[in-house]
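@channel sequence for tomorrow's demo:
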Amino acid sequence: MEIEEKGLFLEVIAHIRTDFPAKFGIPRQSGLADTKAEIIFEQKYRNPDAFRGIEEFSHLWLIWGFSGIDGRVWSPTVRPPRLGGNRRVGVFASRSPFRPNPVGLSSVVLERTENRAGEGIVLHVRGADLMDQTPIYDIKPYLPYVDCHMDAAGGFAERRKEYGLKVEIPGRFLEQIPAEHREILVQILSQDPRPSYQNDPDRIYGMEYAGMEVKFCVRKGILKVCGVE
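structure tokens (generated this afternoon):
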């Protein structure tokens, strides 16, 4: 007997509020920086009963949509940034946004819940790698006894996990960054926001974060902030 496969319709249940108005500079994976975010639910999903027991969990899985990929179609092979952008691997061996179904998965820390007037239950999370207003399709609790595999192999990503840059922020620019954002910004910059195929030491890059435009250059493994607006 043949079974006809039908497309699955995903309804947006919430949107996330983050300090990243654009894609450039967003951490490449969740948990790489202590970014702060809020998850605001759509009206029909604000029933407090839907959140009963959620505060017993320290971490959550977010299932979300790549909303900023500009309609590009998927490709069977992609060039992961951490491989320098010049080696191709299969799309199913990567976390590229250009997939048959542009769906993302992130593990975040649940810091607290808030019952906010006009918005219902708001989830305050840490470690998200999402652009501001990214649609959320579902939320599930992270279960350490089944979701954490200590003997798992990380493939090519494992060989690059220690990659990082030294970050220098001159005092005059550091003073322009609100104290609550300084450490997080250093974490983000140390992961090297640049596309891996760009390595021009004279190029000035600009990254939007928390209402600021942070300008920087990279020379000999050192990322130096050269402007904050």
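heads up for whoever presents: DSSP finds four helices and twelve strands in the chain.
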